[in-house]
Amino acid sequence: MKHGIMILTTSCALALGGVAHAGGFNIYEMGARATALGGAFTATADDGSAMFFNPAGIAWFEEGWHVSANISFIMPGSKFELAPGVEGFPGDTTAETESALFTPGGLYASYRMDDEWAFGFGVFTPFGLGVEWQDPDTFPGRPLATNSQIQGFYLSPMITWRPHETFAVSAGGHATLTHLTLERYATGGTDPSWNVAEFQLEGSSNISFGPAFAAMYRPNDRLSFGLNFKGGVTNSFEDQDAELSFFEGDTDAYTVSGDLDFPSILMAGVRGQVNDEFALMFDLVWFGWSVFDEVALTFNEPTLNTTLVENYEDVYQFRFGAEYDYDEKWEFLAGFVYDNTPQPIDSISPLLPDADRRDYSLGVTYRASHGDWTFAYMLVDFLERSTIKNGVGQNPEGFDGAYRSIAHIPTIGFSRNF
What per-residue confidence (pLDDT) applies to 10? Predict the structure, then answer.
């Protein structure tokens, strides 16, 4: 029983810490046009995904209803190579993740009542990736994680006021529900490669709430500025189920609770219309990840209570977009993103290894009689990241090595006014 409790203590700490890794692994592809433009959409916000990127933009929609549906098909892959000389993690020295498909999306609806007032809501999934490693029985990191998943669901109602033809502001908030799953092995016994038990944690947070504000300024037809703020939320997980299933047949059941702080996000953008056909966009996006410095864990067994230190850092993203309006039917889009990770080197693990990213995107919009269709593709190139620094391993568990990841993201979106 004591052996099971010790295994579970480490497992739950790693599980809840892994959720933060997924939070750092933010999904920004909440609209097809925005994805094609590298997410540089704060000062454009001219389709339904404005409810995510800048709700003040709906003040310039046509009067009446505007609806939009978007879905991304994220296909990630990661590889890992164990550093030479690492001991205590028997198994293969290289590993890959299973083929996976994640489908985050956004559903948006807004209504412009008159020249001054508009309102709308968005349902979107800005958190939702995961990692499942192939051949878990021999994966060297199986004592840390074999499968970790997170899904974050947001509902965001907003109201927009345009007191002047050049300026609009928006206010509202978001309700958040987060679901997580973690699986890992316990190894040990007389043979360090022996798989003793499998740990599983699954649960959902309480509903959390955060504020949201936005503004847009369009001094003329060729220039616009946008600002969008999404307040951070605290996801509270109370008495979630955790099981330790020994391969010999016994199962120990526990509960664990903890709070996870997701960061505030501030987006600032500018759009310039170079000529009648060509426009350029730039967004600077700030994530306040320094709020995620530690996680306090409370067990139904009080002697197991512990605090996990994470020490995430505030980071900036630089997003660039270009738009070419070919004719009345066709529009061509492109983008680039310089994306910095908030994850410090000593927090990297098989749960969700993050790294600085360089994103490249292309897309096309077709204006049909029944609405606008956009098809986009983004390549997310994660820079190789090692837990070795100046010849010394930084992973607190001693699981040191190099990670390399990539993701392909085709996206489809449809928008219509009526």
Answer: 42
- pLDDT value at residue 52: 96
Calpha distance 152→129 (Å, rounded): 9
- Can you tell me whether residue 293 is helix, strand or coil? coil
Report which DSSP code applies to 138: T
Query: What does the pLDDT read at residue 126?
Result: 82
**Helix (H) / strand (E) containing 32:** helix 32-36
**Beta strand ranges found along 341-400 (DSSP E):** 357-368, 371-382, 385-386, 388-389, 392-393
pLDDT computed for residue 50 by the predictor: 96
Enter the tokens of residue 301: 């067994």
Is 355 within 8 Å of 383 (Cβ atoms)? yes
Rounded Cα gap, residues 15 and 9, in angstroms? 10
Distance separating alpha carbons of residues 186 and 244, to the nearest angstrom:
9
Q: Residue 327's pLDDT is what?
A: 93
Number of H helices, E strands in the chain: 3, 25
pLDDT of residue 18: 38
pLDDT at 248: 77
Neighbours of 417 (CB within 10 A): 17
Q: Which of 275, 377, 283, 394 is nearest to 339 (CA)?
A: 283
DSSP letters spanning 399-415: --EEEEEEEEEEEEEEE
What is the predicted pLDDT for the residue at 25?
63
Residue 197: what pLDDT?
A: 86
d(Cα 299, Cα 152) in Å, to the nearest integer?
Answer: 24
| H, E, C per residue of 150-214 | EEEEEEEEEEEEEEECCEEEEEEEEEEEEEEEEEEEEEECCEEEEEEEEEEEEEECCCEEEEEEE
The closest alpha carbon to 241, from 296, 198, 182, 290, belongs to 182
**Strand, coil or helix: what is 135?**
coil
- Which token pair is 261? 């702080």
131 vs 347: CA distance, rounded Å: 16
Question: C-alpha distances in angstroms, 69 versus 40, 246, 415?
Answer: 19, 45, 7
Positive or negative: CA dihedral 157, 161, 162, 167: negative
pLDDT at 190: 65
| Residues 294/310, Cβ–Cβ less than 8 Å | yes
Q: Which residues contact 180 (CB under 8 A, 6 or more apart)?
A: 15, 18, 19, 22, 148, 149, 150, 151, 201, 202, 203, 204, 237
Sites in the chain below the pLDDT cut of 70: 1-25, 128-129, 189-190, 192, 304, 309
